[in-house]
């Protein structure tokens, strides 16, 4: 063949393989061979939890950096994956000063007081920076998954998810496994022509709003001009989303590779289901950038822990029920994370590699423990960003957390010079 079809052409022309991996065993050997000519897509997933960790139980000894460190008890369930993840110690978001916000500024590194006269300001999150480039060819540029309705005190802080757009505004997502499942795999029953008409109507309204905004632009003060510039950023974001909606009109949702989640589900079972759905999203190439804001309160309930999650995070002192709750929480979260890595390693790519080989996974929080915000707990796994794995990496104290995000973005093929308060990449993190 002089011209082999791209994956996009296949998606548009053959409904039977829409947004699914190329499967030679199902008879699509020619298309599978074409796909294998290009390397599989790189993917990024950020798994965030609130309330931090049990400090003496979770962190390796900083005096034994490198590959020959002893895995601490809180990370013991990851032993089988020890060569495939790196713990980075010494990172922080220097502007963060709110001990109960585990994810609000975790991926942004923003100064909440950066705007005069405002007591809250945020900036774009690392996942959205990635989505603007590596999310161009999937149905969803990014996906934002959150905990379900039964979650109580999460320790995450304000925001609709962990994602924030270029204006520093929260990006909503799906709450719980059922909503996430239907977002990915439930078909839109609206006729195609009506979808196009609704899209045209939204474009018409957007054009009118944009014309009015441009008319108002003349003679504005500097402050008002800045506000209007932010407004234009929002318009551009809407235009991008409309263009993507138009691109996928008439393209059927992929067939779900897993059953619809049964309700009700919460806590430990909820997290496990969400991990299954994230893997399914990657397998069907529905998205390549995902954030998941995990529950903590309902996780404790599912472990039959009666301690309030806020009280648990203040476990200081001698051994007591708060400390026990904190350690049990750590173990449960780590066991679930280890299972997620198992799933990524078991999911094959067309050319014989696995999802793990092309995915970067971040597991962590903006909170270390209690109200402590330095040395943010950070585990990085997967080979998608060319990270040096199997390490206890101790960076200079108070290295910007955004240096890690910049390193992962660049390693994932995102063209970006800086992120948040970054001062550069972390050379010791690069393989």
What is the residue-averaged pLDDT?
86
Bulk shape: globular
- Under CATH, the homologous superfamily of the largest domain reads Alkaline Phosphatase, subunit A
Radius of gyration: 22 Å
Low-confidence stretches: 1-37
How are helices and strands ordered from N to C?
A: HHEHEHEEHHHHEHHHEEEH
N/C terminus separation:
38 Å
CATH architecture of the largest domain: 3-Layer(aba) Sandwich
Please list the strands of the largest sheet in the order they lie side by side: 4-3-5-1-6-7-2-8
What is the tally of beta strands?
Answer: 8
Helix percent reads 25-40%
Coarse structural class: alpha/beta
Q: How is the CATH topology of the largest domain named?
A: Alkaline Phosphatase, subunit A
- The number of helices is 12
Which band does the percent of strand residues land in? 5-15%
- CATH C-level name of the largest domain: Alpha Beta
Number of domains: 2
Main pleated sheet: 8 strands, mixed
Explain this structure to me?
35% of the residues lie in helices and 10% in strands. It has 431 residues and is of the alpha/beta class. It has 2 domains: 324 residues, Alkaline Phosphatase, subunit A; 64 residues. Helix 5 packs parallel to helix 8. The longest helix is centred in the middle third of the chain and has 26 residues.
Fill in the keyword field for this structure:
431 residues; Alkaline Phosphatase, subunit A; 8-stranded mixed sheet; 8 strands; globular
């Amino acid at each position: 063949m002089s011209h082999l079809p791209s994956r996009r052409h296949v998606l548009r022309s053959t409904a039977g393989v829409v947004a699914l991996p190329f499967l030679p065993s199902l008879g699509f050997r020619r298309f599978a061979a074409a796909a294998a000519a290009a390397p599989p897509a790189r993917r990024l997933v950020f798994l965030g939890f609130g309330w931090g960790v049990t400090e003496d139980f979770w962190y390796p000894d900083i005096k034994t950096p490198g590959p020959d460190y002893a895995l601490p008890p809180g990370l013991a369930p990851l032993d089988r994956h020890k060569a495939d993840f790196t713990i980075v110690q010494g990172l922080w978001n220097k502007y963060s000063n709110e001990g109960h916000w585990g994810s609000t500024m975790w991926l942004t590194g923003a100064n909440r007081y950066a705007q005069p006269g405002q007591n809250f300001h945020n900036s774009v999150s690392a996942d959205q920076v990635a989505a603007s480039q590596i999310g161009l060819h999937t149905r969803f540029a990014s996906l934002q998954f959150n905990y379900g309705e039964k979650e109580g005190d999460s320790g995450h802080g304000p925001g609709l998810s962990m994602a924030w757009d270029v204006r520093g505004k929260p990006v909503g997502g799906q709450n719980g496994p059922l909503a996430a499942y239907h977002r990915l795999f439930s078909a839109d029953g609206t006729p195609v022509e009506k979808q196009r008409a609704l899209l045209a109507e939204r474009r018409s309204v957007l054009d009118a709003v944009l014309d009015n905004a441009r008319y108002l632009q003349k003679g504005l003060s500097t402050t008002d001009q800045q506000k209007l510039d932010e407004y234009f950023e929002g318009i551009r974001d809407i235009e991008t989303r409309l263009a993507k909606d138009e691109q996928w009109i008439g393209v059927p949702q992929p067939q779900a590779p897993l059953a619809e989640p049964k309700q009700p589900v919460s806590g430990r079972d909820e997290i496990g289901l969400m991990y299954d759905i994230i893997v399914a999203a990657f397998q069907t190439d529905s998205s390549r950038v995902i954030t998941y804001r995990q529950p903590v309160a309902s996780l404790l309930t599912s472990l039959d822990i009666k301690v309030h999650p806020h009280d648990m995070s203040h476990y200081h002192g001698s051994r007591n029920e708060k400390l026990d709750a904190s350690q049990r929480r750590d173990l449960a979260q780590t066991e679930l994370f280890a299972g997620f890595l198992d799933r990524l390693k078991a999911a094959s790519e067309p050319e014989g590699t696995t999802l793990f080989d092309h995915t970067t996974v971040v597991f962590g929080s903006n909170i270390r423990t209690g109200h402590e915000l330095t040395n943010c707990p950070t585990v990085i796994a997967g080979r998608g960003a060319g990270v040096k794995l199997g390490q206890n990496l101790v960076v200079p104290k108070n290295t910007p957390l955004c240096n890690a995000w910049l390193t992962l973005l660049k390693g994932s093929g995102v063209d970006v010079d800086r992120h948040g308060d970054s001062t550069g990449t972390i050379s010791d993190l690069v393989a």
